[in-house]
Design brief:
Length: 1174
């Protein structure tokens, strides 16, 4: 209606310029007083005359009344509903010309006299007169004048609303997933269902409504009784009236009229072969509702009173046969039974299907309902067959509608192939369902003892099915030709250089001819159009085929060998389906036959190498194929390859190639080779070998096997050949061999116990491997003893079980309801045994890892740095592992931990011994040793850190250094003393020794019962928490040596300090006492001086301290004072000695002088004479 835009004088707009409407939020719509309806009036005067078929004068006379202004104002304002312009036909005599009245109303009412109704609908909330009215209004013609509006509404939905929605969705280009999320498929289905419902409404056969005529006297009597709240009876009718023959004749006539009107319904029928299936279904449903309405009227008080009146007048002829004459009971019964089939008939699923999947699904629902209900309902098979044909017509129409919407010929080939394949699947589904329906119909006919009729349905979609099949093959050939002439296959580039024609473009143009027609039109005219288009297509394609033949012959002619020829054939094989191209390559037959001969010869050589020596044998073993089945498969593979070579020749050269001379020879060679490839003799030999053997599943589960090297081993008493047997049987059955029943039963027995046997074998193997692991790790035997004992208990249980139990149990468990729990104990044993051994394996593997960690940590105790943190960390790891063992519930943990603790004690005892020895050597060093060893240790640490000799020096890395204690000889108040005293040094050395021993002795012992609850372990735990008791385990009085060294060192210190303390006498002695003691003996004085000179060596040195290794005596403070005191004493004694010596010398000198004088006074003669006398 965009062409109806009119130009008007400027008017005040309904909406203000700011877009805010001057309307109250609540209450009725109050239009603004300034609204001008002139533009709308002018618009309607231009719009309505051609639509209503009226003149402007007629419209102005009746349409624009005094309420027009108010209605238009309400319509234009916000909240105003649509307006309807109604053309009403006035009542008039038949000869008089028709007259019409035109009204505009906000309320829509339907009447048969309303010939046309125009709906004016706003597109926005308000009308803005500044803008063109045509862009603001929806104009909708609702037609009218028919008996029902169904036809008009159906054409409106199917021809306008639904196509417009589909066009928008198609132009939007959303994917299937996106449409599904937005609900578009559901909306399409709702449109289809609405269209279908309207179609059903106009297709339904109208069942005539039956209204029974009631006499006015009867009606008044019933109304009086109802008013009086009494039951209506003939007593409510005057007696005179009851006996009035006119009244009774009137009632009798009414009853006869009732019978005729009811018979018009009960005898109503329709031809099921005409119309649609939905009409047949709706007919019976509507008929049931009509009969129910008649029954309701017959049960009414009015009808009962009429019958009572007639009986009272003894007119039984009208009352007795009333129900029988109407046929109501029989008709109702038949309709009820027929509607068992018609109710809930899922035909709408087919008619409202919007895609192929829904169509296929609806077919299953329809025939499932039909086959199921036809067995219950007596609906005649004679009517069911035309009903199915009507369903076929609906199916054909719906399928054609869906396929037409897809425009198959325009789709890409992949999409086309998918759609056509899906369509062919739907046709096959129909055929399968029809076979099932045919069987049901024959069965129903036989059960009902009905007269035999041929169960045959003429499907309405047969031509469409044939056209789709033909179209599929035709499109496939075209696609092959299009691909081969495309730029990627090497033919498109030949093009104009060879034949002066672009093959690719020529094929496309040939296809365009077919695009312009409806390929699914299977009518006579449509078929003729299709044949004409196909002929035009073939004419164009023939030129392309000639050019392809030329190019193909060129390539075959330039091929150097048969492989290249086959490569050309394989490349262009898709074109050989075209007869013209196929006939152009027959001259290369001889070369191809020679090539195939060579290939067959290679197959001969492959076969002669034998299966056991081929690569296929090893591959078969890898894929668990038994020998016989593997050999048969290998032979069949060679046979299949041979047939492939033959098929290649046939594909290239065409059928009948074996009629040629060379072809006959090749064919005979193939047949001879195929005889050699016959696998039947191999199978027969295997069958003979199996029958000759005594194989079976029996005996005990376990057996004890003697080993060659001595000893025994547990094994499963199950022949591996039985496993091979059931694998052979399984594969041979797959290969379509007929295995004898006894061997199949034997294989079934083996297959039944195979899972148990394999489980037992694997369990026993795992058990043996686990025991080997335990044997290699002797230290964990105690811990896994409980799990090992449990496994041995299970083995002792299994020794009494036989394989027969498993075979028999499998059979009885299928038939005996209570045998499941009783006989299943054998299979339960297998599971329990596997579980126990699995637990043993898991516990053993986990324990070995923990045990290795524990051993590693224990070994590190002998090499770790000698400090508390290092030892505590390693023992913490050991304790954490023990705690984990405790949590996991390993047995004999206390004894095992006790043994481990003894091992740790031995290592710690060695570390203590070494530490004591090292402490002793460190303590016993002199100053020179200390300096020399320090240099040596520094060199070793820097240059040979990885040497084994550093094991002892690691202790030094743990700060094993004894810092020398400095004692100072001091003098105070003329008293010489040692600060600190020697006992302090002894205490420090003993404390240092204790600290180094405490690094080990204070470590917490490992415990196995940290997670145990109870007080009985408390005393023991408190008594044995550390390794202090190691001090009582030393041999050779090792622990006494450091204390002896300490005492020796203390004694040395006492001796040295005693010398200094002797100088106390320098202050304590008095000189006169010494002088008197010496007397006058010069020898004593001389000896004293000599001793004083020697004694000066103690303090008269340049050094200020004396080192004893781990102790240093500092005498710097007393050295000078003792020296000075000593000098004073020495001077006094020397001076006194000098006096004594001088006096002695004087006396001696005097004596000598006297003696000299005496001598000088004696004469020699006197002396000589005197000598003579002597």
């Amino acid at each position: 209606m965009a062409s109806l835009e009119i130009s008007t004088t400027p008017v005040t707009p309904l909406t203000p310029t700011n877009g805010v409407h001057a309307l109250a939020a609540d209450g009725p719509v109050t239009p603004p007083a300034t609204f001008d309806s002139a533009p709308i009036r002018a618009f309607l005067l231009l719009l309505l005359p051609p639509m209503l078929g009226a003149s402007q004068e007629d419209l102005e006379d009746s349409l624009f009344d005094y309420e027009f202004e108010e209605r238009i104002s309400r319509f234009a304002a916000e909240g105003g509903g649509p307006l309807y312009v109604v053309k009403h036909k006035d009542e008039a005599e038949d000869d008089a010309p028709p007259t019409y009245t035109y009204t505009i109303t906000p309320e829509l009412k339907y009447a048969a006299a309303n010939t046309t109704t125009i709906a004016l609908i706003k597109r926005g909330p308000t009308l803005d007169l500044i803008l063109p009215l045509a862009s603001q209004l929806h104009i909708l013609n609702l037609f009218g004048g028919d008996d029902t509006p169904y036809e008009s509404l159906h054409s409106l939905i199917s021809s306008a609303v639904k196509p417009w929605f589909d066009a928008y969705v198609g132009a939007r280009g959303g994917g299937k997933d996106g449409d599904g999320k937005m609900g578009i498929p559901i909306t399409k289905k709702k449109f289809a269902e609405l269209e279908l419902s309207l179609l059903h409404l106009q297709q339904n056969v109208e069942i005539p409504e039956t209204h029974l005529i009631i006499h006015p006297a009867i009606q008044r009597a019933v109304e009086q009784a109802q008013t009086a709240n009494t039951r209506p009876s003939i007593t409510n009718i005057p007696a005179k009236t009851l006996n009035d023959s006119t009244f009774l004749n009137s009632l009798h006539a009414h009853v006869n009229q009732w019978i005729k009107s009811i018979q018009a319904v009960t005898k109503l029928t329709r031809d099921v072969s005409s119309g649609t299936a939905s009409q047949e279904i709706n007919f019976w449903l509507s008929l049931e509702r009509a009969l129910e309405g008649i029954e309701a009227q017959l049960r009414s008080d009015e009808v009962n009173m009429v019958m009572d009146c007639l009986r009272n007048a003894k007119r039984y002829h009208a009352t007795v046969s009333f129900i029988a004459d109407t046929g109501l009971k029989d008709a109702t019964d038949i309709v009820h039974k027929y509607n068992q089939l018609m109710k809930d008939f899922p035909l709408n699923e087919l008619l409202s299907a919007t895609d192929l999947d829904k169509i296929q699904e609806s077919l299953g629902l329809i025939f499932g309902h039909l086959n199921r209900k036809l067995k219950l309902s007596p609906y005649p098979v004679r009517r069911a067959l035309p009903l199915v044909e009507a369903i076929s017509r609906d199916f054909n129409d719906q399928l054609l509608r869906v396929l037409t919407s897809h425009r198959l010929i325009y789709q890409p080939y992949d999409t086309f192939e998918r759609l056509v394949t899906q369509t062919m699947n739907i046709f096959r589904t129909w055929d399968d369902l029809m076979k099932e329906f045919t069987n049901v119909a024959r069965e129903v006919t036989r059960k009902r003892l009905e007269k035999f009729i041929p169960i045959k349905v003429q499907p309405a979609h047969a031509k469409l099915q044939e056209r789709v099949r033909y179209l599929r093959d035709w499109r496939k050939q075209h696609e092959q030709l299009a691909v081969m002439t495309g730029p990627t296959k090497g033919l498109g580039s030949v093009g104009k250089d060879v034949g002066g024609m672009d093959m690719e473009e020529e094929v496309k143009e040939a296809y365009e001819v077919v695009k312009s027609i409806d390929v699914l039109d299977v009518s006579t005219e449509g078929t003729e159009i299709w044949v004409t288009a196909e002929n035009a297509y073939n004419e164009r394609v023939a030129r392309v085929e000639n050019q392809i033949i030329s190019r193909l012959r060129d390539r075959l002619g330039t091929a150097r060998n048969a492989n290249e020829m086959f490569r050309v054939f394989s490349k262009f094989n898709a074109l050989f389906v075209r007869p013209k191209i196929r006939g152009a390559i027959q001259e290369y037959q001889t070369q191809l036959i020679d090539s195939v001969k060579e290939d067959i010869k290679r197959l001969h050589d492959k076969f002669k190498t034998q299966y056991r020596f081929s690569e296929a044998y090893h591959m078969a073993q890898m894929r668990d194929l038994p020998p016989i089945a593997g050999a048969i498969i290998w032979a069949r593979q060679i046979e299949r390859q041979l047939l492939t070579y033959m098929k290649r020749v046939e594909d290239v050269l065409g059928k009948g190639w074996e009629l040629y001379a060379e072809g006959q020879k090749l064919h005979s060679e193939r047949d001879a080779f195929r005889k050699k490839l016959d696998t039947r003799p191999v199978y027969d030999a295997w069958l003979h070998d199996i029958n000759r053997r005594d194989m079976g599943v029996n005996g005990r589960l376990f057996e004890i096997v003697r080993l060659r090297g001595g000893g025994f081993q547990l094994a499963v008493n199950f022949d591996p050949q039985i496993i091979t047997l059931f694998k052979e049987v399984r594969n041979l059955l797959w290969l379509n061999f007929s295995v004898p029943h006894p061997i199949t039963n034997m294989a079934k027995d083996a297959k039944r116990v195979y899972p148990h046997a394999v489980s037992l074998m694997e369990t026993v193997r795992t058990y043996g491997q686990t025991l080997d692991l335990v044997e290699k790790n002797k230290g964990i035997e105690w811990l896994v003893a409980e799990y090992r004992n449990e496994a041995q208990r299970m083995i002792s249980r299994g020794m009494t079980i036989k394989w027969d139990y498993f075979v028999n149990q499998y059979d009885t468990a299928r038939y005996v309801a209570g045998a499941d729990g009783r006989d299943n104990r054998h299979a339960q044993f297998v599971r329990e045994f596997a579980s126990v051994v699995s637990v043993l394996q898991d516990k053993t593997n986990s324990l070995i890892d923990l045990y290795k960690d524990i051993l590693r940590a224990v070994e590190d105790l002998s090499t770790c740095p000698y400090n508390h943190d290092a030892f505590a960390e390693l023992l913490g790891k050991v304790q954490a592992a023990i705690d984990r063992l405790n949590l996991e519930g390993y047995a004999n943990l206390d004894h095992w931990v006790a043994e481990l603790d003894k091992k740790i004690e031995g290592i710690l005892l060695q570390r203590l011994t070494h530490t004591i020895q090292l402490w002793c050597s460190e303590f016993d060093r002199t100053d020179d040793d200390t300096r020399r060893d320090t240099v040596t240790l520094r060199d070793i640490t820097n240059k040979r850190r990885g040497d084994k000799r550093l094991k002892d020096d690691k202790v030094l890395d743990g700060h094993m250094t004894l810092k020398p204690i400095i004692h100072e000889i001091r003098i105070q108040n003329q008293v010489i003393f040692l600060d600190p005293p020697i006992e302090h040094a002894r205490g420090i050395w003993v404390q240092q020794l204790h600290d180094w021993l405490g690094v080990v002795c204070r470590l917490r012992r490992i415990q196995s019962s940290r997670y145990e609850i109870g007080l009985q372990m408390q005393g023991k735990t408190l008594a044995e928490t550390t390794y202090t008791s190691l001090l009582t385990c030393f041999q050779d009085n090792l622990l006494e040596r450091p204390f002896a060294l300490i005492e020796n060192k203390v004694q040395q210190l006492k001796d040295y300090v005693g010398k200094w303390l002797q100088f106390q006498s320098l202050w304590d002695l008095e000189a006169e006492y010494v002088f008197n003691r010496l007397g006058d003996s010069l020898a004593h004085w001389q000896q004293l001086l000599t001793e004083i000179k020697k004694a000066r060596a103690t303090f008269d040195t340049s050094e200020t301290q004396k080192s004893f290794g781990v102790c240093v005596i500092d005498y710097e403070q007393v050295q000078a004072r003792v020296n000075a005191k000593y000098d004073a004493w020495q001077r006094d004694i020397l001076s006194r000695f000098g006096v004594k010596l001088g006096n002695a010398m004087k006396e001696m000198h005097a004596a000598i002088l006297k003696a000299r004088n005496d001598l000088e006074h004696h004469s020699i003669e006197g002396l000589i004479g005197g000598s003579r006398r002597f």
